[in-house]
Design goal:
The protein has 11 helices and no strands. The chain has about 290 residues and is an all-alpha fold. Helix 5 packs antiparallel against helix 9.
Length: about 290
């Protein structure tokens, strides 16, 4: 069976049963989150679902892809993620490491997260060149959402006092990711409803892991927070607007005349959007802390 043929993830011109089933499971888990006191993780899970769902809905109906929208979507999300990880996760990892004897324990977690993020991304990209019975784009995004949800749940289980700002910034990339993924699926004559699975994916793992009792062990928590910081920093760096030749944005620009000049212009937009995304998180933190 060739890549993107009929699969459990999506069928050309049909709805994804697995996608709709994942929404039902998310609804059930949401009830457990309410009774289990995981309100923050519940909100983050549904924000991730709505963001990716809305992005996928817009992407599936778009007749053309605007490079400016891609750049600003990716830039705002990546700027917010880098800043959130640096402000809320890295200090926690270092502080917990210091409580366990040395801040380097948190640093080990950060390094492990970055390396693990790179490793899974690289191996996942190789799978896109392998002939499989399922849509590799949807499968890769689903794996990412499930793993991100697991980490988010463990972080909030370890430190329930963490605010919503961290989680919301971390899942901010779901919108542009859903938009881009839906555009690919539609171009390949596949149903964008398959993206309901990765949209619900954060909640599917975040809620159960948030309800787990995590031992109050500074060393273990330093590793958890450091690993989370490393993973999300890798994801954020991967989402930085890439306006170089051969990139996704370059593919869109190649459809227009003077694409080289447009890429030069988009680089400025990429920097501006990333700075703005970072500034929004800082300003929101200042406003909340005031």
């Amino acid at each position: 069976m060739a890549i993107n043929d009929h699969s459990i993830f999506n069928n050309p011109g049909e709805y994804s049963l697995l996608g709709f089933a994942s929404v039902v499971v998310l609804l059930v888990l949401s009830g457990l989150a309410v009774t289990g006191g995981a309100g923050k993780v519940l909100v983050i899970s549904w924000v991730a679902f709505v963001a990716m769902g809305l992005g996928a809905w817009l992407g599936a109906r778009a007749t053309e892809t605007s490079p400016y929208r891609l750049v600003w979507g990716y830039g705002l999300a990546s700027g917010a993620m880098v800043t959130s990880a640096a402000m809320f996760l890295v200090p926690q990892a270092m502080g917990l490491g210091a409580a366990a004897g040395t801040p380097r324990i948190g640093g080990i977690g950060i390094a492990a997260g970055i390396v693990a993020g790179y490793g899974t991304h690289t191996i996942g990209h190789r799978l896109t060149h392998v002939e499989t019975s399922f849509d590799t784009t949807t499968a890769a995004i689903t794996a990412h959402a499930l793993s991100a949800g697991l980490i988010i749940g463990l972080v909030y289980a370890s430190m329930p006092t963490l605010g919503l700002l961290l989680g919301l910034a971390i899942v901010s990339h779901k919108g542009p990711a859903g938009y881009a993924a839906a555009r690919r699926l539609v171009r390949e004559n596949n149903s964008a409803t398959a993206l309901l699975l990765p949209a619900a994916g954060v909640g599917l793992t975040a809620i159960p892991s948030a309800l787990v009792t995590v031992p109050a062990n500074p060393a273990a928590n330093a590793i958890i927070f450091g690993f989370a910081a490393g993973i999300f920093l890798h994801v954020a760096m991967d989402f930085l607007p890439n306006c170089e030749a051969g990139s996704e944005i370059d593919e869109v620009c190649s459809l227009e005349e003077h694409s080289h000049d447009l890429l030069d212009e988009l680089r400025t937009h990429g920097v501006g959007s990333t700075v703005l995304g970072a500034a929004i998180v800082v300003l929101a933190w200042v406003a909340i802390s005031a």
